[in-house]
Amino acid sequence: MIIQMIRSMLQKRVTVGILAGTMLGLMTGVAWAQLMPSFHLGGDDKPRMTQEEYDRQQALDKAYKSATKKIPDKQVDDPWSTVRPPAANAPGTAKDKQASKTKPQ
Fold first, then answer.
1. CB–CB of 54/48 below 8 Å?
2. pLDDT tens across the length of the chain (105 residues)
3. Separation of first and last alpha carbons in the chain
4. Contact 23, 30 (CB under 8 A)
5. FRET label pair with 80: which of 13, 22, 100, 105, CA 20 to 30 Å apart?
6. CA atoms within 13 A on the CB side of 34
7. Taking the model in full, what pTM does it have?
């Protein structure tokens, strides 16, 4: 009986210790990741463009924009259009149901 109590208390302490260690590890890992900059997202490392490179980039951007304007808009295809009746003539629409509820019988 006493051995079982000691064993259960030890098991609880080990479990709490493992959980506390895991939580501490996760919290410190996140904090460490925020403090350690390993790469730059932009900034001064990139050399400046020359005037020719800038003009070429502007020409490419202009060509891209004009090409994307030539693409026609995609029409929405309704796969249920042949199955579903037109909305105006459809029996059982929301307006018909509300009208039938308000009509005295």
1. no
2. 888 888 888 899 999 999 999 998 888 877 777 776 666 666 666 678 899 999 999 999 999 999 999 988 888 787 887 887 776 555 555 555 555 555 555
3. 78
4. no
5. 100
6. 6
7. 0.33
Residue 32 token pair: 């460490």
Please name the amino acid found at residue 99. Answer: A
CB atoms within 10 A of CB 93: 13
53 is written with which tokens? 């490179």
Token pair belonging to 78: 């309704």
Residue where the block lists tokens 């506390």: 20
